[in-house]
Each structure stands twice: as structure tokens, then as C-alpha cells.
Amino acid sequence: MSTEEHLQALLERMPHEPGVYQHFDKDGQLLYIGKAKDLKKRVASYFNKGDHNGKTRLLVRKIADVQWIITPSEADALLLENSMIKEHKPLYNIQLKDDKTYPFIVLKNERFPRIFPTRQVRKDGSEYFGPYSHVKAMHAVLDLCKKLYPIRTCSLALSRENIEGGKFRVCLEYHIGNCLGPCVGKQTEEGYAESIAAIRHVLQGNLGEVRASLKADMSEAASRLHFEEAERLRLKLDAVDKFQAKSTVVHPSISDVEVYGVVSDAKAAYVNFMRIHNGAIVQGQTLEFRKRLDETDPDILAAAIPQIRDRFSVASRTILVPVDISLGVDGAACLVPQRGDKKKLVELSLRNAQFHMRDRHAQLEQVDPEAAKDRLMETMMRDLRLKDPPVHIECFDNSNTQGTNPASACVVFRDGKPAKRDYRKFNIRTVDGPDDFASMKEAVYRRYKRLLDEQQPLPQLLVIDGGKGQLSHALEALEELGLRGTIAVIGIAKRLEEIFFPGDSLPMYLDKRSPSLRVIQHMRNEAHRFSLAHHRTRRSRAFLKSELDDIPGVGPKTKVSLMAAFGDIQAIALASEVALLDVVNLKVARAIRVHFHGSDA
């Protein structure tokens, strides 16, 4: 494949996601790092536009490969781009001579702590929050903190001796209400610490606790008839509701850390690696590992991490992973974070691994569709405990409104994709009332009775949209046809995506990133859509027939005209003779009035 064909195929697979992209030349040298709100559109613009300047045209001629890292937002992409440029110094990126970095908010390690912006992160025991991709966003956070909880802005040494000795006097900030005067003992250290604890919640993005506290204080003030105080608290609560939380891709407290995520299919595993240095993501890459003995994801991760560490010459003391593994690397602690920024980094790594796996599948489908299909079939066989590849799958769903006009639908997938010409609808004939189980049995029985009578091929897998009840009645239908054990059957419950197998009382939960679950969910959604559309059509026809077909002079075309003009039966019934004459002639208009209102109309 030529370079042009490789780049074109890559652009077709690139996601519409925010992130950072990296251009490489034919020798693997990093040329340029950029950010994008939409990776696909931004990278494509390099090759689609013809009005680039000379430097950009030279860059485009050298590009032989593109890699990318997805991020939760455009602001996160901006921060990640900044840290990666400083680490790798690509040839075509503008280098900041003053090495100016993004600002943080510091909660100073001192008695009666201050908060203020800074671009210098020091190891002095202070807490740093950020970085902020926009100075305006940082000042919005500071303004919110100061509006909610007045704290000092001065740099006075507020030791106990200085305060008790009366060394200070209150300043203008105290008189205008922006400070409560800790310098002269008007605010206790305990009260000030409560404000700092609340500010820490705001800076960490934990606004739920702040909001709950303000609501409780407001209710208490109102119950004591202190309405001015309640109104002041309400304004603070409104300020919290309008506040937008900061980005959390990088955090200064996380340093010298490696992050790994892994996803897999039947033949390969995809391990994403990110390196955190001085509180920023400076490196990210996803590698593919071929499976040999059907290894599990933890087994693969345990084997891959030492290889990756050796390949990239990293030796961090902290390794973050999504699952417990036995690593055995000297001098390194392997952790599975449960919350906070470290947990978000692991989730970001897993997301990048998932995108890489999807890209790999899309690439394989472009180059070798048959191999891509075989890989999906093998993955589904493994995940769903099947004996044969599920090349032909069928899924059933029912729809009814309080038992009226019951309908069912069967959708068909071949090679993991919809075969819409083979979809089938069923009008339920033998069931009275809202009996979803019996409706499922009838639809399954009729479908496979016909396939047997016509000597048509049977599916390898039958998916029932529902839990144990629907699954057991579908099995009864197969039993009566002598097909029990011939077709593999599973049920899927909507609420928790539980997979039920015949004879197994406990459900199975597939990985949410599994290609098998994606196919089953696609089938379930198609079956629901198709069944609901069929049910609505039946209901509309039945409703029109019962209300309008008995009126003399009202035929099919007139019914359509009336419904188009008035919208529903009730509006037709309430319409005056004059209004009806805009649609039908006088004889039919009077017949409609008589039908709905009697001879007195």
C-alpha cells in the first residue's frame, strides 16, 4: 500500500472526537503535534485544503503516518498538546522561548491559607489545582470561591502571637465584606478552616456537597425568618449552579506515573500506555499483542507492561492499571484506582485502547473484509459459548398497548450486519390481552415452522429481547418443533444488559467494550424499532377503521384527507360543519356530524 493510500485509509477510520494528533515522516520521526475539537475533520484539512503556506505544504509532503490520542474535551486536548510539545519538541511546532505554562490555583500551606493563581508549581506542601486551559476559566473559579466564602487576600504573617498582640488592623477588604477579619481575631481559625474545606470541594469539582450545604443553610435561615440571609445564600447557590468545572486530564499531584489500559478480541489484545511526568501526560501509545493461548486481559497486561517499560525506557514507581495483576516489577507499586483523577486517567487509557481496537477492526475490514468477519465470529463464539460461528443471527421483540394490536418482529443479521430484506413482521393471532410471554412463543413458533416447511437454513443463534420468562417461552416453541439444541438461544434484559442462557439461573455480563455486546445491542435496538413501527401501523389502522369506516361516504382517500386536515379523530368529531366543508362535500360533512353527535347535529 502506498503512502497516499495508507493516509486515505487512516482518515476514513479516524474518529470524530476531540484529541491530539501526531504527524510522522517515513522514518518514524515526529514532525508535528496538534490539537483538535474533531480529529477527523482537522487532520483531513491538511490533505484537502490547497491554500496552505509554504511551511505547511512542506510538512504535508513529509507526512507518512498519523497517530492520535483522544481526550474528554477540547480543553483537555489543549492541555495535552502543551505538555507533549514541551516533552518531544517536534520539528514543525512553535517553541515557546519563555516556556510559559498554563496557570494553576494554589491553596497555600500556611495558617489561614490564601488562594491565588500561579504558574509555578513548588513542592512546599501547598495544594495545586489545574491546570486551566483558559485564564478566564481560572478567574471564574476564583471569583466563585471568593463570592461563596470570604477569605483573606493579604500576605500578612497571621501567627497566633501577632494576632493576640494586636499587630494588625482591618483593611478595606474587611469593610466591604470580602474578608471576615482573621487578622484581628474576628474570625476563628476553625471557622476559616470550614471555608477552606468548602473551597477545596469547589476546586476539586465536588459541587454536590457545596450545593447541599448551601441548600441546608438556606432552609434553616428561612425557617428562622431570616429572609435576607436566605436570599444571600440563594444567590450563592445560583452562582454554584452556573459554574462549570475545570479540566482533569492532568493534575500536579500525579507525577512519575505510568497508566495502562487493555481491551481484547478473539485474536489480539490492545494495550494503551500513557506516561505522566511532572503532572502532565507527555506520552501515549497503543500497542497490539497477538494472543497465543487465549489469555485473559489481566494475563496480557502482566506480560505486556515489562515489555513496554523496556521499549520506552520508563521506570516509574507507580503503575496505574484497571484490574488487579501480579506484576513482580521491583521498585514499582501496581495500583487499581477507585476514584479521583487517577481513576479518570485509567478510564482515558481504556478509552484510547478501545478506539485503537475499533480502528484496527475498521482497517482490517478495509484491507481484508473476510478476515474481519472471521475475527468477529470467533470473538462472539468465545464470548457467548457457541459451538459454531454465528454467521446467521435472528432477534425477536414484542410490542402492544395494554394488550391491543399485539405485534412481534424478527430481525436478521448476517456476518454481524443487518440483512433488512430478511426482516419479518408478525400479527399475533392466538393471544388475548397483554401476554408478552405467549406472544413471544407464537412468533418464534411461526417463524421456524415456516423455515422448516420451506426447507430454509436455520440461524446459528437466536436472541430474545427479554429476561427469563420470554426466553423460556421461546424455548417451548423450539421444543415443540424439535429444534431444542439445534439453535443456540440467549436472552438479553434491557436494564443491566444481562445475558441469560437456558438452564442457567445466573446471568452473564459481557464487557461493555466487547464487539459481541455491540452486535447484540444493535440487534435488540433494531428489533425494538421494527416491532414498534409495525405495532404503531396496526394500531393506527385499527383506530381509523373503528371510527371512520362506518360513516357513509368516507372512503380511504377521504380518511387520509380528514386526518391530514385535523390530525386525529377527536378533532374531526369536534369540528364544525363549516370546518368540515373545507375538506369534504356537504353530504359527507353532515354524515360525519350525525355519526358523532346524532340527528341533533
Give your account of this protein's structure.
The chain is an alpha+beta fold and 601 residues long. The chain folds into 5 domains: 3-88, GIY-YIG endonuclease, CATH 3.40.1440; 104-205, no CATH class; 257-366, Nucleotidyltransferase, domain 5; 381-538, UvrC, RNAse H endonuclease domain (Nucleotidyltransferase, domain 5); 549-597, DNA polymerase, domain 1. Helices cover 45% and strands 18% of the residues. It is built from 20 helices and 18 strands. It has helices at residues 3-13, 39-48, 54-62, 74-88, 135-148, 160-164, 172-175, 189-203, 207-223, 227-242, 297-312, 340-367, 369-383, 436-453, 468-480, 515-548, 556-566, 569-574, 577-580, 586-597; strands at 19-24, 30-36, 65-70, 104-107, 115-118, 127-129, 257-264, 268-277, 280-290, 318-320, 333-335, 392-401, 404-414, 417-418, 424-427, 461-465, 488-493, 498-500. Strands 12, 13, 14, 15, 16, 17 and 18 form a 7-stranded mixed sheet that branches. It has a 5-stranded mixed sheet with strand order 9-8-7-10-11. The longest helix has 34 residues, at 515-548. The protein is globular, with a radius of gyration of 33 Å. The termini are far apart. The model is unreliable at 244-248 (pLDDT under 50).
CATH class of the largest domain: Alpha Beta
The gross shape turns out to be: globular
- Please tell me the overall pLDDT: 82
Low-confidence stretches: 244-248
Task: Tell me the CATH superfamily of the largest domain.
Answer: UvrC, RNAse H endonuclease domain
Number of strands: 18
Overall number of domains: 5
Tally of helical segments: 20
Please give the oligomerization state of what you see: single chain
Quote the CATH topology of the largest domain: Nucleotidyltransferase, domain 5
**Strand fraction band?**
15-25%
Give the second-level CATH assignment, the architecture of the largest domain.
2-Layer Sandwich
The main sheet comes to: 7 strands, mixed
What is the distance, rounded to the nearest whole angstrom, between the alpha carbons of the first and last residues? 80 Å
Which class do the helix and strand fractions yield? alpha+beta
**Backbone CA Rg:** 33 Å
